[in-house]
C-alpha cells in the first residue's frame, strides 16, 4: 500500500509545483484525487482493525451472539482473571460473578475499560386507593468480586412518574448512611401535561450520578405528599440508570405495561485485586499478579474507584493484558488528520517517518510543512496542458452541479418550501439526507394512495425507523392546499394518529416522512395474515384506540373521509395509528361540500356518496364497517357475493344478534357479550341518516365502558 502512496505523493507534488502558489489549482487537484484516495484509506483502516489481539488463543472468543470477549474477560476456566468471568446461555453473553443473569451487550478493553449490560427497570405501581400492587427496587448483584463501578460519565439516572421522588445511594457510611446520593422529582397534573421527548420534570426527570457507585437499589419516597390515589392515568413510578441520551421519554411509558423492560447501562471496570480499598499503579507493579504484561504497555490509575487499568503506549494498539498484545500501529495507513505527513510516509516500530520524495524539499518537518518541488520547464508545460483539459472537465462538472442546485431550489419553492421553512417543529430534509435515510429507496414497503412508500432510518441516537411516502405533484394552484395539509398533520399529536416527522421538498414530487408501523395495516392482519391469532381483547383494544384517534381528529375539526382497515396502521406493539387522514381529505379548509366524491365504495357514507356532504358522521359510518370486520374477520365483500354490511344488518334485524357472523376463533362464553355489544354499536354507526349515528367521541366512550365492564384489568386509554 505504501508503494502506491509514494507514487500518489509524487504525482500530487508535480502538479502542485507547476501550479506554484495558486490556491485554485491546488484545490482542484485535491478534488480530482479525493475519489482515488478514500477507497484506499478505508481498506487500510479495515486492515488495521483486524490486527488486534484480544484473547488467549486457546479460549472461546464469544458466545456466538455477536459480543467479543477480550481478556481479562473470558469464558471457561483459565480464560479470565478473577472477577472477570463471562458465561454463555445459548448465544447470550452473561456477566459472571452474579446471582442473577445480566446480559452483556459489549466489552471493551481500550481506549476505555467498559462493559455494557442490560438491567431491569425498577418500578412501583399503585391501585386507585394508593396501595402498592407491584414493586421491584431494581437491586443488582453483579459486583461480588468488586471489579465493576457504575459509570458516572456514561450513564444518567432517569425517573418516570406523576408524583414521585426516587433516589439511589451507595458508598460507605459516614455522617450519613451512604456516601453517594442521586435522585429527582417527577410530577404531572394529568395525562395531557406530559409530552413525548420532554424529560424536564413533568412525567420524567433525569440527573447525573456520582462516581463510586458499585451497586444499585432504587428508593421510592412514599406516603404524605407522594400520594398516588386516583392517579389512573399514571399508575406506576419507574426508575433506572441507563446510557446517557439512550432513552427518549414517551408518555406511553407511564403505563403499567412498561413493567419488565430492560435498558442498557455502562459499567467501568479496573484491576482491584484482593478487594483492596486502595490499589495504585505504584503498588500493583511489584505484585506477582500485575496485569500490564505486554511489551509497550503502561499502567493508569482508575478514574472511578480504586484500582488501575492498562493501556498500550503511543504508537501501539491491542490488548495490554496479554503477552505481546500491544502491536505496532501502521500510521501510514491511517487518516492524515491523525498522523499528518505532507511527503512520503514510512512506518517504523512505534512511530513513523515522513520525508519529501526525491526532487522535493520542505522548510522544516514534512509532517507539518509542505514539500515544494523543483521541476524542469518542459515538465511544467506538459502538466499545464493536462491541467487545461482537467479544468475544462471541472468547468463542465460545475455547470452540471449548478444546474442540479437550481433545479432543487425550484422544486423547493414550488413545493411550498418558502412557507414551510418558517413552520416551527417541522423538519425539512434535503434530497441528500432523504437518500441516506432510505438508502436510495432500497426497501419499498408498498404503494400508498399517491405513490410508493419506502422504509428508512433517521440518523438519530435511536436510529428511528420511518416510512417515507410520495405525495401528488404540487403546482401553483395546490401550493396553499399542500402547505396547509402539512401544517394540519404536524399539529396532530395523539398516540393513535400517525405522526408526521418531516418532509423533503427538493424533489419533483414532495416526500413526507412518517413514524413507522411495523405490523402493516389492520387489513393485513385481519385478512392476509390469518395465521396470527387475534383475541377479543386485542380487537377491542384496536377498536378503542382507533376510535380515540378519530375522535381526536374530529375535535381538531379534521374529517378523515376514507376510514378503512387499510388506513389503520399497527406498530410493533399492535397499537393502531390512523393514517392518510390529511392528504386523502377531499375538502379544502372551511368547505363542507366536495365537488368530487372519491373513496372506497363499501366504506363510504351513503349521504356523502349521494350529496358530497362530508361530516364527522361520515367517518362514524366508515368506522362502523371497520367494527364489523374486527368482530367477523370477514372482508367487506366475502365469498362469492356476500356483503358484510347487508348480511350483518339482515341477521341482526331478524335474529336480534350477530352471533352467526362472529369470527369462530373468538366466540366463547366470556367473549360473546363483547362481540354482541360491538356489533350493536356498529349497527348504530351504520344508520342511513346521519342524525341517528353517535358522535365518534360517544363511540370511543362506549367501547371503553365495554372494556371496563368485561375485562379484569382497568386499563387507561
Automatic annotation (TrEMBL):
It comes from Triticum turgidum subsp. durum (Durum wheat). Residues 439-706 form the Protein kinase domain. Keywords: ATP-binding, Disulfide bond, EGF-like domain, Glycoprotein, Kinase, Membrane, Nucleotide-binding, Serine/threonine-protein kinase, Signal, Transferase, Transmembrane, Transmembrane helix. It comes from the Eukaryota. InterPro entries: EGF, EGF-like_Ca-bd_dom, EGF_Ca-bd_CS, Kinase-like_dom_sf, NOTCH1_EGF-like, Prot_kinase_dom, Protein_kinase_ATP_BS, Ser-Thr/Tyr_kinase_cat_dom. One of its GO terms (biological process) is cell surface receptor signaling pathway. GO terms for molecular function: ATP binding; calcium ion binding; polysaccharide binding; protein serine/threonine kinase activity. This is Protein kinase domain-containing protein. ATP binds at residue 469. It is a single-pass type I membrane protein. It is found in: Membrane. The chain crosses the membrane at residues 381-401. PROSITE patterns: EGF_CA (PS01187), PROTEIN_KINASE_ATP (PS00107), PROTEIN_KINASE_DOM (PS50011), PROTEIN_KINASE_ST (PS00108). One of its GO terms (cellular component) is plasma membrane.
Amino acid at each position: 500500500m505504501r508503494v502506491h502512496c509514494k507514487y500518489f505523493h509524487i504525482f500530487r507534488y508535480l502538479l502542485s509545483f507547476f501550479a506554484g502558489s495558486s490556491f485554485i489549482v491546488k484545490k482542484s487537484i485535491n478534488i480530482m484525487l479525493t475519489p482515488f484516495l478514500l477507497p484506499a484509506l478505508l481498506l487500510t483502516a479495515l486492515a488495521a482493525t483486524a490486527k488486534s489481539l484480544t484473547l488467549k488463543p486457546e479460549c472461546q472468543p464469544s458466545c456466538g451472539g455477536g459480543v467479543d470477549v477480550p481478556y481479562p474477560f473470558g469464558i471457561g476456566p483459565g480464560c479470565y482473571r478473577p472477577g472477570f468471568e463471562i458465561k454463555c446461555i445459548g448465544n447470550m453473553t452473561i456477566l459472571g460473578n452474579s446471582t442473577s443473569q445480566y446480559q452483556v451487550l459489549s466489552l471493551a478493553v481500550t481506549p476505555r475499560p467498559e462493559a455494557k449490560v442490560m438491567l431491569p427497570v425498577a418500578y412501583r405501581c399503585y391501585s386507585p386507593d394508593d396501595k402498592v400492587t407491584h414493586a421491584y427496587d431494581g437491586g443488582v448483584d453483579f459486583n461480588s468480586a468488586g471489579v465493576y463501578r457504575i459509570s458516572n460519565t456514561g450513564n444518567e439516572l432517569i425517573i418516570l412518574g406523576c408524583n414521585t421522588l426516587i433516589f439511589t445511594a451507595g458508598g460507605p457510611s459516614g455522617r450519613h448512611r451512604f456516601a453517594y446520593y442521586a435522585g429527582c422529582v417527577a410530577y404531572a397534573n394529568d395525562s395531557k401535561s406530559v409530552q413525548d421527548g420532554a424529560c424536564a420534570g413533568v412525567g420524567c426527570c433525569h440527573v447525573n450520578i456520582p462516581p463510586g457507585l458499585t451497586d444499585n437499589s432504587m428508593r421510592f419516597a412514599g406516603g404524605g405528599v407522594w400520594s398516588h390515589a386516583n392517579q389512573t392515568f399514571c399508575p406506576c413510578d419507574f426508575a433506572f440508570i441507563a446510557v446517557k441520551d439512550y432513552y427518549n421519554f414517551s408518555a406511553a411509558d407511564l403505563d403499567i405495561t412498561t413493567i419488565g423492560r430492560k435498558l442498557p447501562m455502562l459499567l467501568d471496570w479496573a484491576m482491584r485485586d484482593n478487594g483492596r480499598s486502595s490499589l495504585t499503579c505504584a503498588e500493583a507493579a511489584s505484585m506477582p499478579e500485575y496485569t500490564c504484561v505486554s511489551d509497550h504497555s503502561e499502567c493508569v490509575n482508575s478514574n472511578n474507584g480504586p484500582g488501575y487499568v492498562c493501556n498500550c503506549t503511543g504508537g501501539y494498539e491491542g490488548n495490554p493484558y496479554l503477552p505481546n498484545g500491544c502491536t505496532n500501529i501502521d500510521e501510514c495507513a491511517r487518516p492524515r488528520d491523525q498522523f499528518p505527513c505532507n511527503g512520503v510516509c514510512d512506518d517504523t516500530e512505534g512511530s513513523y517517518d515522513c520525508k519529501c520524495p526525491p526532487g522535493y524539499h520542505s522548510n522544516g518537518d514534512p509532517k507539518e510543512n509542505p514539500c515544494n518541488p523543483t521541476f524542469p520547464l518542459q515538465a511544467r508545460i506538459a502538466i499545464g496542458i493536462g491541467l487545461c483539459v482537467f479544468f475544462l472537465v471541472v468547468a463542465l462538472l460545475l455547470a452540471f452541479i449548478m444546474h442540479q442546485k437550481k433545479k432543487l431550489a425550484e422544486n423547493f419553492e414550488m413545493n411550498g418550501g418558502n412557507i414551510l421553512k418558517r413552520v416551527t417543529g417541522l423538519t425539512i430534509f434535503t434530497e441528500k439526507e432523504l437518500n441516506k435515510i432510505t438508502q436510495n429507496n432500497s426497501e419499498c414497503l408498498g404503494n400508498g394512495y399517491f405513490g410508493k412508500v419506502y422504509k428508512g432510518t433517521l440518523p438519530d441516537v435511536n436510529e428511528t425507523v420511518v416510512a417515507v411516502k410520495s405525495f401528488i405533484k404540487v403546482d401553483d394552484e395546490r401550493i396553499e392546499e399542500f402547505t396547509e395539509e402539512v401544517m394540519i398533520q404536524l399539529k396532530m399529536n395523539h398516540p393513535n394518529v400517525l405522526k408526521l416527522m418531516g418532509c423533503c421538498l427538493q424533489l419533483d414530487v414532495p416526500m413526507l416522512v412518517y413514524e413507522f408501523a411495523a405490523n402493516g395495516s389492520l387489513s393485513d392482519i385481519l385478512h392476509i395474515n390469518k395465521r396470527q391469532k387475534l383475541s377479543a381483547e386485542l380487537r377491542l383494544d384496536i377498536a378503542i384506540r382507533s376510535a380515540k384517534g378519530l375522535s381526536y381528529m374530529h375535535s381538531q375539526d379534521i374529517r378523515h373521509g376514507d376510514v378503512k382497515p387499510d388506513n389503520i396502521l399497527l406498530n410493533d406493539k399492535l397499537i393502531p395509528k390512523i393514517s392518510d387522514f390529511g392528504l386523502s381529505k377531499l375538502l379544502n379548509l372551511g368547505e363542507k361540500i366536495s365537488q368530487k366524491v372519491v373513496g372506497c365504495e363499501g366504506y363510504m357514507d351513503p349521504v356523502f356518496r349521494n350529496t358530497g356532504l362530508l361530516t364527522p358522521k361520515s367517518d362514524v359510518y366508515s368506522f362502523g364497517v371497520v367494527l364489523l370486520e374486527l368482530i367477523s374477520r370477514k372482508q367487506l365483500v366475502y365469498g362469492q357475493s356476500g356483503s358484510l354490511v347487508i348480511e350483518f344488518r339482515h341477521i341482526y334485524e331478524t335474529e336480534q344478534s350477530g352471533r352467526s357472523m362472529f369470527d369462530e376463533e373468538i366466540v366463547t362464553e366470556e367473549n360473546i357479550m363483547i362481540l354482541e355489544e360491538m356489533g350493536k354499536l356498529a349497527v348504530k354507526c351504520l344508520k342511513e341518516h346521519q342524525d341517528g349515528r353517535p358522535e365518534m367521541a360517544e363511540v370511543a366512550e362506549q367501547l371503553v365502558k365495554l372494556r371496563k365492564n368485561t375485562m379484569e384489568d382497568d386499563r387507561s386509554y
